[in-house]
Amino acid sequence: MSIDLESYIPFLSIVISTLGVSFVFKDFIGDLLATMVIKKTGDIKVGKRIKIMLPGNITKGDIMEISLMRTTVMEVGDGERLPSVRTGRLIKVPNYMLMSNPVMVYGDTIIDEVVAYVPRPYPDSQLLLDSMKEAIINNGNGLIEVGLYQKENNLVIHGVFEVKTSEMVDERSKILRDFLTKTNQASAGIEEPRHTVQSEESKMTLPLQNIERLG
User: Fold this and answer.
1) Is the preceding omega at residue 94 within 30 degrees of 0, hence cis?
2) Is residue 140 within 8 Å of residue 166, measured between CB atoms?
3) Strands of 7-108, DSSP E
4) Which range is least confidently modeled, 12-21, 32-41, 107-116, 195-204?
5) Would you kindly state where each structural domain of the chain is located, as residue ranges?
6) Is 42 strand, coil or helix?
7) Whether the Cβ atoms of residue 150 and residue 92 lie closer than 8 Å to each other
8) Single pTM value for the model
9) In what order do the strands lie in the sheet with 103-105?
10) 110 with 142: CB under 8 angstroms?
11) Are 44 and 50 a contacting pair, CB within 8 Å?
């Protein structure tokens, strides 16, 4: 019969505390037990990108080594700061922290999105859709879908793509740059942009589930 070691960690911590063992020794035992769980489950392993959701702080990086007590992570930028770029800093994470905190484990590929806002006068809508598709594909990413909808005084072009986690830097910036280049060049020869007057009932929208989040 297999034993779920992870479920015993809180119980063992209480027992050790009751016996009056020092906090240092408790952490030592916690690290050893966590290492056993990590090795058994195989979810967290060398080469994987993880994000540790610590209270008040987020640690994101690529796992370089898992030792008996510590996991070495190569820090990767997150959010607006150096998105998905390795910073060159190594972080030594106690293994018990990988068990006592939520950990996001990235797969071999991830799904990302890119959003472009186009003000009036609007270029041809098909040109915008095709340009976004080409920008995604030409940068070596997998095209999932491209949508178009209107929000206030802008047309919003929303692209969803798949990219390899190991190769991801800031693909959104690359795609957006190519998209803007394509649409600017294509519309450069148009002397009088076409305007279409539509009522609220006939205005074309393509609703998305994450329309509010993208705003």
Assistant:
1) no
2) no
3) 49-54, 57-66, 70-78, 81-94, 103-105
4) 195-204
5) 5-105, 109-214
6) coil
7) no
8) 0.64
9) 81-94, 70-78, 57-66, 49-54, 103-105
10) no
11) yes
Q: Which CATH architecture has domain 5-105?
A: Roll (2.30)
Q: Hey, what are 137's tokens?
A: 């594909």
Q: Which residue, 125, 123, 143, is CA-closest to 133?
A: 143
Starting from the edge strand earliest in sequence, which strands make up the sheet with 154-164, in order?
109-119, 154-164, 142-151
109-214 CATH fold:
Alpha-Beta Plaits (3.30.70)
- Of 101, 89, 83, the residue nearest 34 (C-alpha): 101
pLDDT 10s digits, 94-116: 999 999 999 999 999 999 999 99
Nearest residue to 205 (alpha-carbon basis) of 149, 151, 155: 149
